[in-house]
Amino acid sequence: MFVGVIIALSMIMSPILQMSYAHQRGLFNIDGKDYLFVVGSLNEPASVDDKTGVDFRAIWPNATNPTDSRANGTQPITGLEDMLKVEILAGDKNLTSNFEPAFDELGSYESEPFYPTVSTTFDYRIYGNINGTDFDVTFSCQPSGGESAPSDNSTVQISEGVERKALLGGFGCPEDRIGFPEPYMSQLEIAQALNKTE
């Protein structure tokens, strides 16, 4: 029976763990304090014409294991919706959004929803002012999938008062949808086909 409970729990937790680790984790020192930011897309993997948004989590990290968002002793950072915005970039197009606190999840924030219209590389530029220190960092999706992103434990000076101490994992770029039994046509492809007939 004990083995059955473990198997059942692993089946329930597997999608949650996969979603959480399909995000990029950045450890920053901002004006002398460590912050762990976890960035990705809602509904990963995001697909063309599917509703998604920017998923941003802010954590006071565990001092002995600062890049693990699930380590004992971590605490959510609240109030950042008044300090930060996100710019969603795809090629030469951009969309700016406020952050709103996620429902019933302290330290979790979401952008306004959007619908990727093509399969391409997306950048999420998170910027603003955190307790008097300017913050401006861009996180990029990985076309080959989030977990293929190399880790970087080097210290990088981002700006005055902001230092990146580690960058781990990644999040995937929006993918084309697979149609069955007929090929899937995106909304953009349908619009282009309609324009040709006019």
Annotate the secondary structure layout.
Elements: H1 2-21, E1 24-30, E2 33-41, E3 54-60, E4 75-76, E5 84-90, E6 93-98, E7 100-101, E8 108-110, E9 123-130, E10 133-140, E11 156-159, E12 162-169, H2 187-197
Task: Walk me through what this model shows.
Helices cover 16% and strands 36% of the residues. The protein has 198 residues and is of the alpha+beta class. The protein has one domain (22-197): Immunoglobulins (Immunoglobulin-like). Strands 1, 2, 3, 4, 7, 8, 11 and 12 form an eight-stranded antiparallel β-sheet that branches. Strands 6-5-9-10 form a four-stranded antiparallel β-sheet, with no helix packed on it. β9 (123-130) and β10 (133-140) form a beta hairpin. The protein starts with a helix and ends with a helix.
Q: Main attributes?
A:
four-stranded antiparallel β-sheet; 2 helices; Immunoglobulin-like; 36% strand
Brief sketch in words of this structure:
The chain is α+β, with helices and mostly antiparallel strands. It has helices at 2-21, 187-197, and strands at residues 24-30, 33-41, 54-60, 75-76, 84-90, 93-98, 100-101, 108-110, 123-130, 133-140, 156-159, 162-169. The longest helix has 20 residues, at 2-21.
What is the assigned CATH homologous superfamily?
Immunoglobulins
Low-confidence parts, pLDDT < 50 over ≥5 residues? Answer: 2-21
What radius of gyration results from the CA coordinates? 19 Å
Distance between the termini: 65 Å
Any idea of the CATH topology? Immunoglobulin-like
Query: Would you identify the CATH architecture?
Result: Sandwich
Taken as a percent bin, the fraction of beta residues is: 35-45%
| Average pLDDT, all residues | 87
**In terms of structural class, how would the helical and strand content be classed?**
alpha+beta
Helix content: 10-25%
Q: How many structural domains in the coordinates?
A: 1
